[in-house]
Design goal:
Strand 2 and strand 3 form a beta hairpin. The radius of gyration is 33 Å and the shape is rod-shaped. The chain has one domain. Strands 1-2-3-4-5 form a 5-stranded antiparallel β-sheet, covered by helices on one side. A 3-stranded antiparallel β-sheet has the order 6-7-8, covered by helices on one side. The protein contains 1 helix and 8 strands. Helices cover 32% and strands 35% of the residues. By secondary structure, it is of the alpha+beta class.
Length: 171
C-alpha cells in the first residue's frame, strides 16, 4: 500500500481581507494622530507669535516712554493722555487714539504711532503723584496698559502696569 501525500498547491502569498483592513486602520490612526499633532503645533505657534507681538510692542513703548519721563518735568495727565517737557525742553504728549498709542513732540499738533499696527490697545491710563512743586516727592507716573494681538484665529492679551519716577526732585 502506497501512501500518497496530497499537497496543497493553493499557495497564497497575499494578504487576507481582514489583514488588509487591520493594516489600513492602523495606518489611518497613525495619520490622524500625526495630523492632530501638526494642527496643534500650528495653533500653538500662532498663539505664541501673537503673545510675542504684544509683548514686544508694549515693552518697546514703555521703554521709550520711560526714557523721556525719567528726564522730564512739568507733568500733567488726564486719563489716557500724558504731557510734559522732556530734557530738550520739547513739549511731549502721549495719548491713546482709538487703539494706538501715539506721541507728539510738538505739544500735541502732529502725532505718530508708537505701537505697531498688529497690536490693539484696549486701554491706557496715566496716574500722577508727586507732581506738585515743593511737596518733596519726585513725580511718579503709573502707567496701565491692556493690549491685544491677533494672529490668524489666535489672540493674546497682555495687561501691564509700571511706575516710572523722575530722576530728580522738582524745584
Amino acid at each position: 500500500m502506497r501512501m500518497t501525500r496530497i499537497e496543497n498547491k493553493n499557495n497564497e502569498n497575499g494578504l487576507t481581507m481582514i489583514e488588509l483592513i487591520v493594516a489600513i486602520g492602523i495606518f489611518s490612526l497613525v495619520v490622524v494622530m500625526v495630523v492632530g499633532i501638526f494642527v496643534l503645533a500650528i495653533t500653538t505657534q500662532r498663539h505664541i507669535t501673537a503673545l510675542k507681538n504684544v509683548d514686544d510692542n508694549i515693552r518697546f513703548t514703555l521703554e521709550s516712554m520711560a526714557r523721556e519721563i525719567k528726564t522730564g518735568k512739568n507733568f500733567s495727565s488726564s486719563a489716557s493722555l500724558l504731557s510734559f517737557l522732556n530734557a530738550r525742553g520739547e513739549s511731549v504728549v502721549y495719548r491713546l487714539n482709538a487703539s494706538t498709542i501715539e506721541k507728539s513732540s510738538d505739544g500735541g499738533t502732529n502725532y505718530s504711532a508708537v505701537t505697531g499696527s498688529e497690536v490693539t490697545i484696549n486701554y491706557l491710563n496715566f496716574y500722577l503723584s508727586g507732581q506738585a512743586v515743593g511737596d518733596n516727592m519726585e513725580p511718579r507716573i503709573t502707567i496701565t496698559i491692556d493690549a491685544t494681538s491677533q494672529v490668524g484665529s489666535k489672540s493674546a492679551n497682555l495687561k501691564v502696569q509700571t511706575t516710572i519716577s523722575q530722576r530728580s526732585l522738582q524745584s
